[in-house]
Here is the input.
Amino acid sequence: MNKGISAACAYCKIDKTEKICLAEGGKGPKFCPTLNRMDVVKEAMEEYKKEKVREFARQASIQEGECYANRDVKPYVKFPVKPRVQEICEFARKMEFKKLGIAFCIGLMNEATILNKILVNQGFEVVSVMCKVGRVPKEKIGVKDEEKICIGEFEPMCNSIAQAKILNQEKTELNILLGLCVGHDSLFLKYADAYTTVLVAKDRVLGHNPVAALYASGSYYSRMMKPGF
Ligand code: SF4
Here is the structure.
């Protein structure tokens, strides 16, 4: 089924009422993975046959639906009602998770304290680890002095592998990422044993709202469309 064509849904211009991935009898362009990659879709569906994976996916979908109000009104106009932090708590409760982990960035210390309080108030046991855990100097991973944020000063590395391993040791059932840097978050996701969700994606300029640069890419952030910015 893989016809050697890369999947490129981001280029798809077919109206959503006619997309083959949304409408029965719909259509797709030549790069459509619904047309060309059903072998992979079938392979994925095998994973969902695993009881724990299936239950995780099922509860995630139920949670998704419950994030909207007035769902019985037709024609339906989307009415989202829950902030993500509430969504995380409700999903964790559905999964009967008791112990949650927070992996956070030093830049979001205050937010970590608040999140911790919310989770505790919602009845969870919480373990949290900040990125600078272990105070290992950046030089240990080959970072040069001129590559630090504060040149000429001691700077501990962001140790997201240690964050993941500590939460693994604590046997957290769901981890929550709070503002880890690009790349540090990737390492955390690779090394964490438990499932992880992201509450905050760090954006130092846009108040942790990275999508704003995409929204404004036709105006104030048009430089994003130019090679090399
Ligand atoms: S799966 Fe096919 S129809 Fe759906 S968005 Fe991707 S290319 Fe378009």
